[in-house]
Amino acid sequence: MQKTQKIKGMINNMMLVVILLFLANQYFVSQAVGSSSLGGSRGSKIQLRDNAGEGEIIAAILPKDSDTVRPYTWQGQQVTLSAGTPGNGYDMLVAMNKSVNLVDESQKSRFSDLSNTIYHPCCDVPIGSCGCKHAVAARGLVKYLLAEGYTDEQIKDEVFVWNRYWWPKHYATAAIYLNSQGTNPASVSVSDWLGSKLSTVRAGRKMRAALGT
After folding, report:
1. Are 81 and 63 in contact (CB under 8 A)?
2. For residue 141, how many other CB atoms are within 10 A of its CB?
3. Distance between CA 104 and CA 80 in Å, rounded?
4. What φ, ψ does residue 69 adopt, rounded to 5°?
5. Three-state secondary structure along 104-124?
6. What is the pLDDT of residue 11?
7. Most distant CA pair in the chain, distance
8. What are the tens digits of pLDDT across the range 7-16?
9. Contact between 139 and 97 (Cβ < 8 Å)
């Protein structure tokens, strides 16, 4: 029993340290970027070797320094993974939802499909059925990227980057859970990552219970 509690404590402490370092780094990088025209990769694939340790797993699931600057702009400003600062990327995504109007019927259909199949750890419904700011921002991102010509897979990749930025502890837990079940988190498709089995409040409770955290 004492050994189990010690392991739980080590996992929680490790997750907390890594996440705090990540958030601090994201803040300073976003402050330094400003309106820079630097580019980034479209979506960020998880890269993780088999039999990786928990520290590696947590580090792999969180967005990297190179992910901070996103490969698109909004109203002339570079979009970054940022929140709570003037001109932050989070608020830009919300603005996209208000300003972008899809006129193409195929884009409208794809928007409906994506909005009803992409989940987030804020609740137990897809982003198309939730009124929280995160869901509004995610819908704005989907709209904008559809208008910019992104494929559905690229859009999901990008939403997944933002989800991991918004909920680092949830996805670190999910990655550790998958690994405990014999699944390399890097082998999971982005559609599955954004599905109800991994990206909901209910899923989070189930995974934490399985891990005993």
Report:
1. yes
2. 28
3. 28
4. -90, 120
5. CHHHHHHHHHHHCCCECCCCC
6. 56
7. 61
8. 455 555 555 5
9. yes
The closest alpha carbon to 162, from 149, 176, 144, belongs to 144
pLDDT band at 5 (very low <50, low <70, confident <90, very high): low
DSSP 151-182: -HHHHHHHHHHHHHHH-HHHHHHHHHHHHHTT
- The answer to whether 15 touches 58, Cβ cutoff 8 Å, is yes
Q: Which two tokens stand for residue 122?
A: 């804020």
62 Rama class: left (phi>0) / alpha (psi -120 to 50) / beta: beta
84-103: pLDDT as tens digits: 999 999 999 999 999 999 99
Q: d(Cα 82, Cα 68) in Å, to the nearest integer?
A: 8
Tokens of 148: 């910019």
Predicted pLDDT at 45: 78
Three-state DSSP state, 64: coil
Is the CB of residue 80 less than 8 Å from the CB of residue 156? no
**Structural Rg of the chain based on CA atoms:** 17
Residue pair 166/156 in contact by the 8 Å Cβ criterion:
no
How many other CB atoms sit within 10 Å of the CB of residue 62?
Answer: 23
In angstroms, the Cα distances linking 82 to 29, 39, 145, 196 are 9, 16, 18, 25
| Per-residue pLDDT tens over the stretch 161-208 | 999 999 999 999 999 999 999 999 999 999 999 999 999 999 999 999
Is the Cβ–Cβ distance between 43 and 161 less than 8 Å?
yes
Q: What single-letter amino acid sits at 58?
A: I
